[in-house]
Amino acid sequence: MGPRGDLLIYGAGGHAVSVAETALALGYTIVGFIDDVSALPTLLGRPVHARIPQEHFVRGGQLALAVGDNARRETLYSTLASSWPGLRLPVLIHPSSSVSSLATVGEGSVVLQGAVVGAGSMVGALCIVNSGAVLDHECTMADLASLAPNTAVGGRVRIGRRSAICIGATVKHGVVIGEDTIVGAQSYVNRDLENRVVAYGCPARVIRAGHIPPH
Hints:
There is one protein chain. The chain contains three helices and 24 strands. It is α/β, with parallel strands linked by helices and 215 residues long. Strands 6-9-12-15-18-21-23-24 form an eight-stranded mixed β-sheet, covered by helices on one side. Strands 7-10-13-16-19-22 form a six-stranded parallel β-sheet, with no helix packed on it. The longest helix has 14 residues. The chain is globular and about 50 Å long.
């Protein structure tokens, strides 16, 4: 095992590559990827398995989830937790990121290269703070929310459970974004957004309400 131990990564797409890079930078030994639909036999020189090898946890190995879709990540975690009682997922924070000592990051969340998490911010469980994303001071990301690369979130913003802020979007300070809401790429959000809406534009406008995430 490496200094941090053996790690399996659940997922074999682009997000899995980013998570793998972070895990390697932290000293984990990546022993493989899990994807039951992937046609790839290997990824980054590691095997891609259809399921978790039974002996992995017996040997003290750990698991990271690298599924970018927030609702699918929730469903996957629920399934795994029922199959593996006591399952605990590591927090993966890239050494090049800046996470304040006054911030908290929940179980299973990933903070990727060059990201910033400001003082007093709270990142929930199973969240994604992607490459170059900025979450300023005293923000709250509820469980399973995600920030895409190069998003900029001002101070004291609240982001609801499973909501996704897409690539390059900007959220004005103090805004509240509801649950299961999607903010489109390159948008500017300058006012609150309700639950289950899709919004985009500069400024962002709701273009669809009643959004139901895929499961």
